[in-house]
Amino acid sequence: MSKTRWPSAVMLALLVLLLGAGRYGPLHAFVESAKSASGKATYAETGFLGNRGRQAAEEQAVGGKPLKAWLKAEAQKRAIPPRDAVLDRVWKAIPGYNGRTVDVEATYAKAVAAGWTAESASAAPDKVPWVFKEIAPKVSLRDLPPSPVYRGNSAKPAVGLMINVAWGNEYLSSILNTLDEEHVKATFFLDGSWLSKNKDAAEEIKRRGHEVSNHAYSHKNMSTITDAKQLEEIAKTQTLLKKTLDIDNRLFAPPSGDFDARTVRIAAGLGLTTVLWTLDTVDWKRPPAAGVVAKIAAGVGPGTLILMHPTSTTEQALKGIIRQSRAKGLVPGTVSEVLSERRLDAAAPGN
Length: 351
Hints:
Strand content: 5-15%
Helix content: 40-55%
CATH superfamily of the largest domain: Glycoside hydrolase/deacetylase
Number of helices: 14
Shape: globular
CATH class of the largest domain: Alpha Beta
Largest sheet: 6 strands, parallel
Structural class: alpha/beta
Radius of gyration: 31 Å
Order of helices and strands: HHHHEEEHHEEHEHHEHEHEEHEHEH
Oligomer: single chain
Number of domains: 3
């Protein structure tokens, strides 16, 4: 080959390689992504460099910022640290609450599949298909010394409905129907002597999906009886709950809210957390339902535990209590859900 023809051949070979890269490699994938009418990244995986072309298209965005890099930066803004369980001077034991972090890899995979770019994501960050992972607190309720619980964590938008049952059968069906209509589960603390005489009613409470827990056996003021008698009151109902309803209960509500340090210790020895309340409807005095609803509306907040009984007042006020809680963006539910560390999305106000 002559010296004059050699440079021409080299130039021709280089031109062929350049065109091939544009057709089959990352450059072509980017060009194809730029052709998307929607403005979101697309790509055509062709040729022996197709995988690299796809990766370039997935990460490329207008302005040159990779999508994954944008997600990592935004993830820091959306991270929420967990809250440890604490012993409060006023509220005693307060449960912890999980934090959250963004699962960048899972979010990235979903975002790419949906055609997001860094530019479209930054324009509508709340619409990105974020995937979160929960982070447990370092200190949980079980790590604290035995203590009574009056409320949940104030960061959790949940409200606990606790209904102590030792009488009031005539109002139970109506209360259960209201809970069904509002799609809410509550926690029913059952007096053991009531349970022994009302197994059908107790089974109906369980059948409707509500939490059932321990309210001692004969409604005695716990602080006025011996250690042995306190143990008998709690353990007898615990055995009855298991035998009658096949329930492994973890909560104990002392009758009339009367207890002492011995009560908390004895209950803890049986694996039970002693639970009191944040707001009391005082429904056993039969106040007007409208007044009870107004009281709850004024005082309810994240982590509130609301005490009720099967009375005519609660029968009439329950729907309003639920709806007033939701109006504040709170989710009404069981006591266990309020005390759980699991994260909970707030309800849309008014729903």
